């Protein structure tokens, strides 16, 4: 693939924390609509890479282009505005606001940012209600995040990420702590939004979910990319097996 076929083209990403190299010269490319699995042992740099891509952390080297445009100097808000969305490993809802109101801020922000016409109160309501419904939270519109179960909280986190209407969603460990059937529910939601054209970087430890979801797999170990390819080839790679067994 050439740069112009890619929704995300990150090259040579390096990130240090003091003297510690958390990411060393990592390349990551994603095609529009692609489902990319990103795996690696704990501490390998997956969340750090997410933070660098989405603008929560400044990189120490490399370049990132998104939708054909250099985004290195853009804030996380500006990146979100261009269509680069994320969900957090630890969900961060507004705890004092109802689920409906939790969607208001990202919704209004994204529409304004794209130069859309101002949303009316009715339109905000309608779209928030629709999104929460899509994520199975239609019965809890007026509840507070604190009333939600763990899987519902994950759904809220995804609905909030989708409210900015991303073309690429980075999902950082959306399945941690969920039961087998809850994992399947979240997977189905991610597949549904991917079917509508949203590319997904799926960061996950549960291998059955990674294999079910991913069209391509990238492996990070100790801040370096050690494999990138078809999932069945990647999981058979000796270095990948060694990295996991050596944990
Ligand atoms: P993963 O998400 O793959 O589990 P992380 O990206 O969270 O890994 O962390 C990668 C490494 O960077 C770990 O060794 C972690 O301790 C370190 N690290 C992450 N964030 C910081 C930070 N803000 N300051 C110092 N070290 C950090
Ligand atoms: Mg992490």
From TrEMBL:
Keywords attached to this entry: ATP-binding, Nucleotide-binding, Transport
Per the UniProt record, the source organism is: Bradyrhizobium rifense
How is this protein named in the record? ABC transporter ATP-binding protein
What PANTHER family does the record tag this protein with? Answer: CONSERVED COMPONENT OF ABC TRANSPORTER FOR NATURAL AMINO ACIDS-RELATED
Q: Which Gene3D superfamilies does the UniProt record give?
A: P-loop containing nucleotide triphosphate hydrolases
| Gene Ontology cellular component annotations, sorted alphabetically | plasma membrane
Q: Which InterPro entries match?
A: AAA+_ATPase, ABC_AA/LPS_Transport, ABC_transporter-like_ATP-bd, BCA_ABC_TP_C, P-loop_NTPase
**Which Pfam families does the record cross-reference, listed alphabetically?**
ABC_tran, BCA_ABC_TP_C
Residue limits of the ABC transporter domain?
Answer: 8-247
Phylogenetic lineage? Bacteria, Pseudomonadati, Pseudomonadota, Alphaproteobacteria, Hyphomicrobiales
Role noted for this protein: Involved in beta-(1-->2)glucan export. Transmembrane domains (TMD) form a pore in the inner membrane and the ATP-binding domain (NBD) is responsible for energy generation.
Q: Does the keyword ATP-binding apply?
A: yes
Q: In its keyword annotation, does this UniProt entry include Transport? A: yes
Q: Extract one GO molecular function annotation from the record.
A: ATP binding
